[in-house]
């Protein structure tokens, strides 16, 4: 009898296997396409531009070379201690070979620059001019170095 029950159980399991395999899986609800989470909106910034560097190269016998850099910043923060600056863009400029539409402006800048140089030289005279270097001592061939 035991063999009959075991055989019947195996037969039932064998016959119910395909029926169980034909049952559908879990219920899935279609919600449509995925919409990504939006990025947080950027914080309010003020857009500023300033001359971030200025280089003047003068030679007594040559032309002056003037170059400068303009930088755009985004400024965020309400408090002085909380202010943050983000560099947006930066560009180098030179006054050596200006475009035709800015030649008059270049000449005006050069005039103002020469006035500034005169003021700076006056400042040097009032604060004390550059110190002369000590002359280099000639060392003979037979003398030892100190």
Characteristics of this structure?
146 residues; alpha+beta; three-stranded antiparallel β-sheet; elongated
Counted by DSSP, the helix tally is 2
User: What structural class do the secondary elements suggest?
Assistant: alpha+beta
Largest sheet: 3 strands, antiparallel
How much is the radius of gyration in Å? 42 Å
Listing every helix as H and every strand as E from the N terminus to the C terminus, the arrangement reads HEEEH
Strand content is 15-25%
Q: Determine the oligomeric state from the structure.
A: single chain
Number of strands: 3
Q: SSE layout and pairings?
A:
Elements (H helix, E strand, L loop, with lengths): L1 H20 L24 E12 L7 E12 L7 E11 L8 H25 L19
Antiparallel strand pairs: 1-2, 2-3
Give a verbal description of the structure.
This protein is of the alpha+beta class. Among the domains are: 43-96, no CATH class; 97-127. It is 31% helix and 24% strand. It contains two helices and three strands. The chain has a three-stranded antiparallel beta sheet, with no helix packed on it. β1 (46-57) and β2 form a beta hairpin. The chain is elongated.
Task: Give a nutshell description of this structure.
The chain has 146 residues and is α+β, with helices and mostly antiparallel strands. The protein is built from two helices and three strands; from the N terminus they run αβββα.
